[in-house]
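Q: Predict the assembly, please.
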Amino acid sequence: MEGRGDAETRRVMEEPLAIRTENLTRIYRIREGKGRQKKRGELVALDRVNLQVRQGELFGLLGPNGAGKTTLIKILTTLLSPTSGRAWVDGLDVERDVDEIRRRINMVSGGETSGYGLLTVQENLWMFAQFYGMDRRTTRQRMDELLEMVGLADRRHTKISDLSTGLRQKMNVVRGFLTDPRIIFLDEPTLGLDVGAARQVRSFIANWLRERPERTVLLTTHYMVEADELCDRVAIIDHGQVLACDTPSHLKRSLSREAIYHIRVSPFPQELAPSFHLIEGVRQFTPRFHDGHVHLDFILEEDDVLTPVVDRISRTGARILSLEKREPTLEDVFMSLVGRGLTEEHPGE
Amino acid sequence: MRAGLELWVRTVIGRAYPRIVGANRERSWLFFDTFLPLLGTAAYVFVYRAVGAPEEYIGFVIVGGAMTAFWMNVLWSMSSQLYWEKESGNLGLYIAAPAPMMAILLGMAVGGLFSTTLRATAILAIGSLIFDVHYALGDFGLLLLTFALTMAALYGMGMLFASLYLLWGREAWHISNLLTEPVYLLSGFYFPVRHLGFWVAVVASFIPLTLGLDAMRQLLFPTNPTLGFLSVPVEVGALTGLSILFIVAAWYALGYLERLAKREGRLTERRG
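A: Predicted assembly structure:
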């Protein structure tokens, strides 16, 4: 009998692939230490990454800062060479078929400050369109449509130095989609946007993909909601390695046996945090400080483990303000795979 | 073939555009890039007048002052430009686009040449008016050819430097700083380069402005040809050679250094 996972894998293999990587590895040479104690070292940004993204898919790369997401995008957009392994974009080798790949792709990064401040939105977009050989009529037509869609039409004659961060990011999104790429790489496209603008950008991306099934989006994000809401499939990546890759619902289902609790307490002595890992049945535990309270996220093997957990909290002198059992989220999946929350930085970073 | 050529032309126009409109939108250049260089130039005029130098020297200084604008443009807005483009996030987008990087650089050069020609013309016109410089231009075509070749060689050198700067971070700023003053001296901006001595002038001739400036001075002030370094035809020939050399070298260097920067991860990395 064939499982769901097998069927999914077979479907991926059968459909045309937009992106494929094979043991893709990137190692940076770095210098560590200060002054005379400086010595050369190596940083493994990507470690034998194998991915397959099929045509028409909105594929998410989920991971914390420094996980290797941007490095992967740089390799796929021909800006960086892999140290070893291979990668193909739209069936073309990223090392050999550079020119042809560049005609078919585009990219947008969060917090991007590209363009020239003294040019208007329209002039900047026109300039970038020239680098793709687009004629005046097509440029004008697409620009009109896209500016309207992201709500920037009334700012087309504004110099970009006069735009807010959010509006500038919307312009960047338009720049990326203006050339109608077959594959677009979005690296944290909603970074720094307010809730409304981020929602508008997400809805635009989803609609763009729906219009033509041969288009593909590779999206990196560390926003769970974004990955959950937008992506057909998600790869969880940390320390340059792909830890899991599946649909958001399958990933969450992998935690269905566990009991997930969110407990809000006050006050909470931080030094006691490690002791929670010692309780038998606690799979993962993450404390977070937010809104003046301490939020404790637990993944427990079963509901019965809650009793010793609550008992331990009481013994620390903390007061439980709320206790809630939750459905698993992608953040829980990440926490269960990596051992820490997505928003937590790596020690030493 | 046609699509490739069209992409080239569109890219050149697209990248030249910000520099061309920039000259119109930021009018502060009228003061900073015209009045201030004129002050420096005026100092040399007064020195030459005080020591009773031949009157042609006044014209030499004004022409040199005008040509300084091109050197500054090549150094600060051409050579180190890719470093600034990297800092602003444009470089990655340029490279990931199908446009050839050489066309992007050419667009920068064309745009820079346009805006700098405005500045240089202003310096030349105002300086000539204030200090009553008389030109005795005989062969306008040859003067135009000399200017065009000087610019081709100079901006070709700028493109070569720009590709080298792909690998460098903030060092680019220091190198530009380091090159500013020695070139003022070696290319004879404010005096006839032959006074440096033959061999020093030969070495200095690798800076395209040296021979370009010398030839243009000979063409604009033909009354005193003994002030020239080499004959105009020889200098025009050398400038043609330098133009080809720098442009071809820039072409190869850009391809090689882009591959190297890709391998080392320096194309988009901001190294402060």
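The mean pLDDT of chain B is 87. The first helix of chain B runs from residue 2 to 25.
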